[in-house]
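Methods: example folding runs. The two proteins below were folded one after another, and each record is reproduced exactly as written to the output file, sequence line first and structure-token line second.
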Amino acid sequence: MVSPSVDVIEKSPERIVVKFNNIPRQYVNSLRRLAISEVPTLSIDDVVMLENSSVMHDEAVAHRLGLIPLRTDPGRFVMPHECDCKSTLGCSKCRVLLVLDSEATDKTKVVTSGELVSEDELVKPVSKDIPIIVLAPNQKLKFEAYARLGTGKDHAKWQPTSAAVVKDGKDENEMILVLESNGALTAEEILVASVEKLASKVKNFKQVTSSLKIPKNA
């Protein structure tokens, strides 16, 4: 019997490709699903609009802000419902404040993610060139935005992957897992977090099943 094996065949910050040999497909697919839905990242979740004289409604601006991937430091923040601050506003452990104050003077201006100023030097948009809104002359946009941890199963804006695929390899009993990152986490960080999530779920399942009581007359 051939022993199971796992090999990384391609790796960059944006993409990782892993080959699995003689490992049940359901385990590999579980990693794919966890990468999409249960690996937490930071995303803007609440926006306090201070001034908006643009043609776009506040809600539409907030929606666009939520879809801007933010660089996330794994393990540095906690989920809002797990934080001991117990505050709806949050604290430095569970939220990050980003602000923007932009105005078009004598000509049209494209406001981009590069104008977002974060209170945390590590938590920033993964790109400075993501467009947020176009301001006409004399229009202004000013707001405070709060980023919090969340997972893809709650909203797509928290998904760390831009692609997650399981496909057959060249040989029998060989599968390939491809993970591509949107930049919030590196592809390797997504894979490691997925493995840890799967291991935790298996451990919890074993604990539950070991505590099962079988009736004597069964």
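Second run, written to the same file directly after the first:
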Amino acid sequence: MSKKAVCIISGGMDSALGAAIAQADGYEIIALHFNYGQRTERKELEAFRKIVAQLPVIESYEIDLDFFKQIGASALTDSRIAVPTGGIEPGIPTTYVPFRNGIFISIATAIAEKHGAEALYIGVVEEDSSGYPDCRECYIQTMEQAINLGTKDETKLTIKMPLVHLKKEQIVQKALALQVPLADTWSCYQSETEACGICDSCRLRLKGFELAGVTDPISYQTK
């Protein structure tokens, strides 16, 4: 009997690699993407579809979560809040979306339970956890305990975090080794044409490629 995994795929490099690792681990993939009113919603959805087209996906979900925009409180979902471009600073940045990963995992759990999936893959990275509390390994582990308490007895779901202890350059190297289509991924927080090159996400991505000694295949307005 084949084993199944729900893979949360944003369209970014990390989640694309997470899905590739799930494939390498022998799982049939149920792909899951969220449109939540983020600035680059259209581009991320386009990236998700390109990534999924190159994976052995048995089912694909595109979930709309309009309430994130109604809640606001994040530069990603509220156009009145500027995306920071001055460099990565300590503390929780304005690009943090309140409890986003907790909500994503909850919905992914419902889908996993429907399909009888054994695993849920999420591309969280501890390198980001100083700014994003919902990327911390201890939080995801606690969430796993909670969802298994709140689902059917026969549901035994493991949340896989294969990237959690990797640096960005290691992510680039592993993605290349697994032939992840990095040219089809998108990381920029604020542009849907050429990546801005100066938001926190672009800075982390560019640093990863630089330290890996590889040229990023996507176009940037500035580097």
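Comment on the second run: DSSP finds seven helices and five strands in the chain.
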